[in-house]
Amino acid sequence: MTIQFLILRIQSILDGKANASDAQLRAIASEYMRICQNAERKLLHCASLIRAGRDYAAFQVAETQPMLLETLNELIFSRLEDWRNFCSIHSLPCPSPFDENQISLVKSLYTREISQNHPLYRDYRRAMRMHNYEEALSIISTIVKVNGSNSEAKNELEKLSRRIATQKFEVAKAALARGDLQSAIKTASDIREYADDIFSNDEDWKNLSSKIDDYEKQNAIKRISEIFEALRSSEIADDYRKILEFAAETDVLTSKFEIELNAADQDYLRAQTKRALFMQDEANAAEAKAQALLDIASEIEHPSDMPPKQSLEKILKLKKAAGNSIEPEMAKRLSKTISVLRFKITISLLKKAGLATVVICLAVATFFEIQKRERLNTQYRSVANAISAIQNMQNTRGAVQSLESLKKTFPQTCALTEFSDKIETIENTLALKTAYLKKFEHFKNAAEKFDKKSDDPANWLEMQNELSAADSQANTLDGAEYSAVKMEISSFANAFSNAISAKRAANAAKLNALIDLIQRETALANVHDSENIQHIKNAKDALQKARALAENPSIIFAISPERAEKLQEVAQELEDKANLAENFGKSLALIKSASSAEEYFEALKELSQSPAISPKDAGSIEKILAAKDAVLFEVYGGIIDKNTAEEAPEKFSAPSINFYDFPEIAKIHKATSNGKTYYMIDKPEERNRVWNGGGEVIQKANIVSDSSGKAKETAFSKITFKNRRPNGYILEGIKLAKEAEIAEKTAEISDKKSLSQALVFAANSDANPIFKAWLEKRILDAFRQSPIKSGFAFSKTLQKRAKKIDAVAAELTPYSWIFETDSRANFVKSELYGEELKDPMPEAYSTKEEAQKSLENPMKIVGFGDFEGNIASSENLSGKKLYGITITGDFGELSQIKKPAKLTPIFVHQEK
């Protein structure tokens, strides 16, 4: 049973609408007490952790399902004191109040700002990294509870909730499509708490929700069937606790899911409940008798340290409680103990009278023994008859007077054991009746003077409590007295009921009028209009009055659940509208107070996230935000972006290049053999052999075999004969390739002079165009490693050159030029090397200087476009050229014909 449903059951009992049996009342009270005890243990644990300085551990305990503060808020409901009184009157279990200091400690956890370094954020980030989105949702929910004003956390919570809900909804729909209803319902139930809002208009979700309701009801019917099967089994036939538990569970299920039991099951359940209650009463009685026997045994063996009269009163009450369960042996010892106590009491009285009197009394008693016995017999009969008559009297006052007269007439006889117990019982009964009659007379006087026009619920509640007490205690009386009192109580009850009904009707009419006023004023409040403040204030005033009626803790003026739900609904609508208006006002104020373009766009971004912005206006704002970079570029001179200009060094410097990764470049040699050109790494090894009449030359060279730079050892040989033609060919004209020389020279210039001069040298050198393109890309990549520091960001020439080089040299290697065709080399030459390259650094320095001057004198923000597209200015703008974003999303000068976009920033050039 959920706590909410349990509280509703309790409230219906307090309202007299539940018609619950004694067993059901006890089961509901026991369940409430069990939940309270669990919550109290969790509260104590959490408070102990906080006192020990372990706040994060306390957080984890408090946020473990069921969450502690939510549970306490539900358990400490508005009519808790009424329920305590009800439990006290009907002898039902009820828990003690929660410790307010411990609750305050736990609440303090949620008032401490959580920073990004807090362990909760650490756990959240870890959960997101591990894609454990459900754990992440639980953690971010806790963060939002504490940091209620953190819009970033709220947005993340909303996005994560929607993400999980959407994913699980799709899984549920897929399960439903393949006929797996149970999986679909289980998955959908996990997200139902927040999916009802997200998919409120989705027909698939509505269909799935109804299936969940049907499924839960079918499970409830199945569970009831299991309960009746268990009740009919022999295993729990004598287990009254289990029977009462099953009866209470059946009552909860039938009430929650509106299940109607058939007549046979109702009769069976009623009979079983009655039998279990009888067994419970017997068990309680047996337990009470057993406890009384233990107390008697203890009193006999170890008498209490009390005066004889008090000891006697205590032991006589125990004897009465034990009834006929006292064994003969114990009965003898008990009788002896009672006699001893009475003897001690007598001796004490005689001592007070004096020893001589005792002696005289004993002598006289001996002399007149026969006369005394006869007189005592007569007195015994008179007292016995009088006691019997008093017991049958139905007039309490008359019975009290008769008993007092009897005790005065026969004091000694009434004090005898034969009559004292009976007289004590009669006195106790009459005392209860007398006390009740006095209390009832007081109630009647108060009820007759009660002002039925009173608006104070405390007065009504007090009178109703007195009426309930008078009615519940009326069985103290009997016979004609009981009937007369019940008739008077009934008359008062009817009068109060009619008066309360009239009061409730009047309050309901007031409440309905206030709810209508709240709705009307909330609807009139426009978050974009300054007049919304008054409408919201009117609605809040009405809400305060409505809550004074609706949230009254007494049952006297309680409103219907439907009205309570309606009030909560309109209150939420008002709160949402007020929050929208407040947040919108704050965001708009930030926009109006922006003193720079950066501040303006930051404020506009915050405004774009406000729920107060319509989709159409949000689209307009998105255009403006999309143009942010272009706007800032123009605001700071239109030369270079602001951050780049601010970070520009006084003097540009770029790293030198080297060929440590390709050391073979500087060793590439060129040679020919038999009319074919070869490129190799280093010079070839050569060996000569000479003999009479001829000789042989053998060369071994590492010939570059592909564009990756792989070298293949290749042998060349040439044999000469005297007076004959040579046989074979060797490498001739071996020399360092000019590309290797240029690479080495380029690296040297970049190191000793500058990277820009190295670029100029490489581009203007007499080398293979393919190789030069590769070499330039390496130099330009060095520029781009630190574009601002090197000056690359300030040179359009360098940027344009880099774009061309990238298009040609993206896939080139240091050896590609060896294997490219002449047509390819000629194409690269015509594209890149048609004219001499100039040093780009003067251009970079010129751009830097101009950009920094623009930084010192940017365009000034002087207003914004309002929601109507009109310019809202902060100063006189007549005669000035205005710049902003047009309705097409372009930044530029605004003429009188074009309108600015909604909420565009308006700029003018500052005078230098």
The oligomeric state of the chains shown is single chain
Structural class by SSE content: alpha+beta
Distance separating the two termini: 77 Å
- Share of helix among residues? 55-70%
Categorize the overall geometry: elongated
Structure annotation, total helices: 36
Let me know the average pLDDT. Answer: 81
**Taking Cα atoms only, what radius of gyration do you get, to the nearest Å?**
51 Å
Biggest β-sheet: strands ordered side by side in the sheet: 5-4-3-2-1-6
Strand content bin = 5-15%
Poorly predicted regions are 355-371
- Care to count the β-strands? 11
Largest sheet: 6 strands, antiparallel
Number of domains: 7
Coiled coil: 143-170
Keywords: Coiled coil
Compact description:
With about 900 residues, the protein is of the alpha+beta class. About 65% of the residues lie in helices and about 10% in strands. It has seven domains: about 1-110, no CATH class; about 115-200, no CATH class; about 305-435, no CATH class; about 435-500; about 505-590; about 605-635 and about 860-910, no CATH class; about 665-835, no CATH class.
Give keywords.
912 residues, alpha+beta, 7 domains, six-stranded antiparallel β-sheet, three-stranded antiparallel β-sheet, coiled coil
